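Field reference: sequence -> structure
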Amino acid sequence: MRKVFFGLLTLAALNIQAQKSELAVKYANTITEKDLMDQLGILASDALEGRETGERGQRMAAALLSDHFQSLGLKAPVKQGDQMSYYQNVPLVSSKTKNAYIKIGKQKYENFNKNVFVGTGVTSGESMEEVIFVGNGAAERYASLDVKGKFVLMIGDNNYRATLKASKIAAANGAKALIAVRTETDEILDQLLISYRGYLEAGRMSVDTGIEQNEFLGMYFLAPSLLKEVMGKPYDKLSQIAFSADNAGFEKIKKGKITISVDKEVKKIKSENVMGYLEGSDLKDELVVITAHYDHLGRRGDKIFNGADDDGSGTAGVMEMAEAFAMAKADGNGPRRSMLFLAFTGEEKGLLGSEFYANNPVFPLENTVTNLNMDMIGRNDEENYNGKDYVCLVGSDKLSTELHEISEKANATYTDLDLNYVYNDENHPEQIYYRSDHWNFAKNGIPVIFYTTGSHPDYHKETDTVEKIEREVYLKRTRLVFYTAWELVNRDNRPALDEKASK
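Structure field:
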């Protein structure tokens, strides 16, 4: 009862509106529906050709963003030689699978059938090798295994990020390829293929480290029904071993041989993150970062994927928030903390722009107070939230309970949106926490809030166009991010990390 009582007190405290800041309201009101839609109308126009990473339309969008930041008087924060720039150059490498198959015994399974498909990799070749079972693919599973020059097979959760990490661990241990079983049934794998096929056929990108590619052939997804043929045991037996707390039983697994063949087209890509810096006053060494990704899917034949909601909506939000805060500073009401308005490239290719920034930060990550990230905030998920003025929040309570409370209070005080946390659930199948640019801040211990609205029928289709934006609620969502940022840049203390997050 005591816990319930104090829980009710906490809820009551959150529901009490704080006194509104007249200054916050004044500058939030400079963010208008018309201005958002004007910016979005350019970003999502046919002229920008879908803003494909590394292509002409993306470079045109980058120029639009840098010109906007410059017109506001934001500083160019990136040093390039003797000059300062709004661009952070992001070197990428693209690989597109032309042909691939896995051969088990006499049976050949072509890429993109319901039994197998290629995930990542930039190396071509054909090889028949022994298959070594590595459980869930964690680093400690390799302690007593010799996998150099061999294929490794793992069973893991249906989590792309975790599987990608396992792929890097396999390569680091000298394996020739990683074969991943991520689903309990072939039917689920078939559904994954439907979701991923467009990405994979268009080619995958990664950050170009400048290191020559090794012999690692990449990551492959395999149907669980084929496990017995490859490893001698069915999915249920192998999964028990894979998820066990120790390495017992691995040595008893059959080491079969299979053939992997892949032919890839590889090329280098140049792209850019675009950022503008607004210096704070007495707390200027601390930084709040406002982000969205400005790339999209480009064009396929004569179809242009305009990406109005994904993520033209978030990018226009960044632009208009930058203008509001720049105006406040010009009036002598500027932020105490510094602000970085940052538009990422390569999100659609695997969070590549934010990955590059996190590994090459323009400002020290330890001085970065919070990241507020917007991706798809202009539409409604009518199937699940019909008629509601809502926004889905992800990550606000993952690292800092105080940040979550700041967010709730800002909404209660100013915007009164229905805050939905369905995607914040660690067990949600979409795994949204790991799927947009905020993740590359969160994984470095920086508190984040990700603002999104769920999916809609036009997601990743050429029909994601400007006229379908829900203008009034889009404005309210953008202003909520502004109000939250206003509090974060002007309060005395940065949001405290929870004890579990600071370890």
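Note: The two ends are 31 Å apart (CA to CA).
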